Amino acid sequence: MYIKQAGTEDIATIIPLFAAYRSFYNLESDPADLRDYLYERLTNHQCVIFLAFSDNITAGFTQLYPGFSSLSLRNSWALNDLFVAPEARGLSVGLQLMDRAKQLAEATGACEIMLQTAADNMTAQGLYETLGYQRDNDFYVYTLALGEVS
Fold it and tell me: Would you say 51 and 42 are in contact if contact means Cβ atoms under 8 Å apart?
């Protein structure tokens, strides 16, 4: 297993995984839209993407966005996306990507990594809980949708 931090030169490699990730959430993806989105995030240093490779296949990715915590007066990371290709499941790809995300957070002095997952995504919940992530029972998440989701 090999994990690398992705750059703009990796966008073509990320697109099929990103599209499959969005498909999991029943969202369609135009490759040009994905390319533009990833290019903007990466060139403006608005995210960090880690790619996992195993036996010459792109096994998965995780994407994190930087943030800040007013309560702790420190930076934080939002782990927004984690996806393991079906053919790589069972190879600890998710575990290794999560470990690399934790290394990033520790290296940048972050106070936390925050993430959300679907209530019915028991596989992801099991991984997160195994790694020590705790479900928040003190705060509710609210979202105000603006415009169309593509």
Answer: no
User: Do 69 and 112 contact (CB within 8 A), yes or no?
Assistant: yes
Q: How far is CA 39 from CA 65, 80, 89, 150, in A?
A: 14, 17, 27, 17
Walk me through the domains of the chain, giving residue ranges and CATH numbers: 2-130 (3.40.630.30)
Contact 51, 85 (CB under 8 A): no
DSSP E strand stretches across 19-140: 48-54, 57-69, 74-84, 113-115
* pLDDT reported for residue 150: 54
* DSSP state letter for 45: T
- Look up tokens 């959300």; give the residue: 116
In sequence order, which ranges of 9-121 are alpha helices (DSSP H)? 11-24, 31-43, 93-107
- Say if residues 60 and 85 touch (Cβ distance below 8 Å): yes
3-state secondary structure of 143: coil
| pLDDT 10s digits, 5-29 | 999 999 999 999 999 999 999 999 9
